[in-house]
Amino acid sequence: MSLEKTALRLGYIPLTDCLPLAVACEQGFFAAQGLTVELSCEASWANIRDKLIVGHLDGAQMLAPMLLAASLGIGGLRKPMITAFSLGLNGNAITASNSLFNALREHGGGSTPLDVAYALAAVVRERRARKQEPLVLATVFPFSSHNYLLRYWLSAGGIDPGRDIKLVALPPQQMVDNLRLGHIDGFCVGEPWNSCAVGMGLGKCLLTGYDIWQNGPEKVFGVTAQWAEKHPETHAAVLRALHEAAQWIENNLPVALQLLDRGHYLEVPMSWLALPLTGELRVGLDQRRCGADAFHVFHRYQANFPWRSQAQWFLQQMQRWQQVPADIDIAAAAANVYRSDLYRSVFGDTLNLPLHDTKSEGEHTQPWLAPGTRGDILLGPDAFIDGAKFEVIEPSV
User: Fold this and answer.
1) In whole angstroms, what is the distance from residue 302 CA to residue 292 CA?
2) DSSP 8-state secondary structure symbol assigned to residue 189
3) CA nearest neighbour of 72 among 340, 334, 395
């Protein structure tokens, strides 16, 4: 069938995990699908959302929870949005200023990610006793995995994110400057901005997103539901190109990173781009080497499948922090946005896909096998930092 539209404008934020979009352009995967794609570098996540809503963008790299919020009409205009493709797993980290890191070491009695949270709780108590202002930590957007992972980690350490810490939102590319200027004490952001802060001597990385939720979802490719309905064949072509790109990245990551190192994607030295992917990024109070294999997952472990259980977890966190009503139908809201049915319609004839649209979250500390349409499939560890298990919510009949 012919494509409804061949010239597309897709938005992205300058982050390492915009790589699938960049590779699909640079390696000709979009062109092979009959698409001419312009990638538009955007200033903020809110900018991407708003341009998508008004039609200035056809699709974009997006924060997964942002689609859920927009579809529910939370935090801005209401516009049903969907994703049928996850751009990868992991990729975030939490970095502290040098002064905060030194204070944490003075209060730290261990080296695990939870130990760091306990040390932070001690710093918070000390500051309160001295009547000092609360620490200021930044995330990239109120509806983001960064916000929920940071809050989850803080809570696991006994810190109330709404009372003990001041949380602010900043675009990813502004994090390092705000840390340098002393406007914030730390941040949770995607790469390469943690590595940039470390490379510039402005701070230390405390832990990675993987330390909080192993192989948690990150960015997705998002479009409005209206656009997808109007351009089904074009949408399918984009998904096929992104799948080819993600698979290629998995086998050619060093070369893929060089595609970002061309100025028009990320003006960051290659040494900083590669830092977490070569095991050279140091994390924790003991500044141990970070495991490179788990930092970014672009394709393996069914990283591109839009798991509705992951959408449900985000919605539960949105409820936990009172961003959405307590009585929303979580299963229905997740299914409306996370369109695993569209993923299956595009790839069902060629790939071994998960048998179900949901999976257990939090039960596995090692790779494990799940039933697939053509035999078992390998999935990655999915444990939470506190050992919690997430109960999937079944749709109401």
Assistant:
1) 19
2) E
3) 334
Token pair, residue 67, equals: 């689609």
The reported pLDDT for the residue numbered 242 is 98
Asked if 7-90+216-267+296-353 and 92-212 have one fold, the answer is: yes
Residues in the chain predicted with pLDDT less than 70, given as ranges, are: 1, 262-263, 396-397
Domain range annotation of the chain: 7-90+216-267+296-353, 92-212
At the second CATH level, the architecture of 92-212 is 3-Layer(aba) Sandwich (3.40)
Rg (CA), the chain: 20
Q: Which residue has the tokens 């960064």?
A: 146
pLDDT at 267: 86
The Cα-based distances of 138 to 36, 172, 356 in angstroms read: 36, 9, 36
Paired strand residues for 211: none
- Classify residue 220 by burial, with Cβ atoms within 10 Å: 0-12, 13-18, 19+: buried
Measured between alpha carbons, how far is 24 from 230 in angstroms, rounded to an integer? Answer: 23
Entry pTM = 0.97
Backbone angles phi, psi at 50, to 5 degrees: -70, -40
The size of the chain, in residues, is 397
pLDDT at 366 (0 to 100): 96
CATH dotted code for 7-90+216-267+296-353? 3.40.190.10
User: What percentage of the chain carries pLDDT values higher than 90?
Assistant: 88
Helix (H) / strand (E) element for 369: namely strand 368-370
Whether the bond into 192 is cis, omega within 30 of 0: yes
- Residue 291 burial class via C-beta count within 10 angstroms: exposed 0-12, middle 13-18, buried 19 and up: middle
